Amino acid sequence: MKENVSVRFAVVFLGFVCALFLCGFGLWAQTPEELLQLTQDNTAFFTTDFSGKYTVVQEKPGEGKSLTEAIMYRRDKTNQWTILVTGPVKEKGKGYLQSNGNIWFYDPSDKRFTFTSSKDKFQNTNANNSDFAPQYYCRDYTIESAEKVKLGAFNCVLFTLVAKVDSVDYPRLKLWVTENDGLVRKKEDYSLSGQLLRTTAIPSYQIVEFEEKKYSVPVSMLIVDNLRGKKIEGKMQFERTQISISNVSFSKVDDIVYTKPYLEMMGDK
């Protein structure tokens, strides 16, 4: 009799555990891998060109702010992009070009192209050149963990990602992704040893409709460099870069825009 009771208890307990597991699994509208793929897809525009005005404000504690204005052109399906600096006057005409797997910087003052990389800083700010391009989270990283969390008012999935290739800017990432739309709301970049290097916040997105399709583009991005800063009045303040995006368009851009002659021509104006 006691044996039968024990067996029935074990069966009920096992069923209870399985039910909890299935309920927890059911809370995920999609798997973590599917959500991360959506997040990656949201950063790229493979069926159209993209262009927009970028206003970049760099703030160094104790040194004030500096402003850079630029126009960004992207053709993600061919992995090409061009950034033309339009202000301030002393920087006007400088440009960046990614084509055939290479990134070039053009300075009209000496009319020379110099090789740069995706990891290099854009105009000496806290933004990397790669921050302006699609982000390949699924291709370049493995999911170490994924958990549901709250980030302010947002219901997010917090991903911890570990690089599986050496070409990435940062070997470890943490991503806070809103689970209903796959948009990155916060990102932390880490060294291999686990040191926090940068923090990026993307609080809001603009929805742009083009040819009956809707695209999500950040309104602004705040990048905080957790290594570069100084103490002011006893409090540590870090360098930060605010990037605002406006005048977004998904109309086709002339092919010449993605070439060195275009930057040379615009640099002479």
Protein traits:
269 residues, alpha+beta, two-stranded antiparallel ribbon, 18% helix
Would you give an account of this structure?
The protein has 269 residues and is an alpha+beta fold. The chain is built from four helices and 15 strands. The chain has a 13-stranded antiparallel sheet with strand order 6-5-4-3-2-1-15-14-11-10-9-8-7, with helices on both faces. Strands 12-13 form a two-stranded antiparallel ribbon. Strand 5 and strand 6 form a beta hairpin. It is globular and about 50 Å long. About 7% of the residues have low confidence.
Distance between the termini: 95 Å
**H/E element string?**
HHEEEEEEHEEEEEEEEEH
Low-confidence stretches: 9-26
Number of continuous helical runs: 4
Major sheet: order of its strands? 6-5-4-3-2-1-15-14-11-10-9-8-7
Going by helix content, strand content and strand pairing, the class is: alpha+beta
Which whole number gives the mean pLDDT?
A: 90
Major sheet size, sense and barrel closure? 13 strands, antiparallel
What fraction, in percent, of the residue positions are helical?
Answer: 10-25%
What percentage of the residues does DSSP assign to strands (E)? Answer: over 45%
Radius of gyration: 23 Å
Shape: globular
Tell me the number of strands: 15
